[in-house]
Amino acid sequence: MASLRAVRTVKSDDIVFDANGKPQLRHGLAHTTRRTTRALQPQPRWDLVTEYMALDVEFQMENDHSTGRNRQKPGRVSMTNSDGKIVYDVFVYFPSKKGHHYWRNSRAQNFGCYNADVKPSNGARPIAEVEENVHNLFANSVAVGHAVLNDLEIWES
Questions:
Q1: Which of 40, 43, 103, 139 would suit a FRET pair with 117, their CA atoms being 20 to 30 Å apart?
Q2: Which GO molecular function, any one, fits this protein according to its record (predicted)?
């Protein structure tokens, strides 16, 4: 099955045809996306919060060099309401810590969180902000999802 990661929508007047009749984007892909992140809703939509909300977390790994232990950390957090509308979808970055190394899966493995996604320059948000938003979004809601306990237990607070 083809990945939908590369799908973009454009207005018809942004498409021009070359001499061979092949469609081309008039201003290039960056012009059409108008954002630097692949996340669909990096700012929480508080107006869309419902009693039941679905949560899915894609992970990145943290290695503590002093202990040699690996821990799962949130890499992408996605939440939808009971109507299926996206409430929050954001990539997470962690400030550098001495003796800690973070890594993600390769694109070949087709997971939802990659190295470029978790860079602040690409729109990733700091973990403290994301934790606070998730906590507040679920303050009066019930979390549902596949293996949701795994997704909930990785939060610091």
A1: 139
A2: nucleic acid binding
Integer Cα distance of 70 and 156 in angstroms = 15
DSSP of 85-131, one letter per residue?
A: -EEEEEEEE----TTEEEE---GGGT-S--GGGG-GGGT-EEHHHHH
Three-state DSSP at 5 gives coil
Distance CA 27, CA 14 (A): 7
Compute the CA torsion angle 79, 81, 85, 86 (nearest 10 deg): -20
Residue 111 is encoded by which pair of tokens?
């997971």
One-letter amino acid at 157 equals S
Give the domain ranges of the chain. 38-153
Cα 154 from chain centroid (whole Å): 16
Residues 6+ apart with CB under 8 A from 60: 72, 73, 74, 75, 92, 102, 103, 104, 113, 118
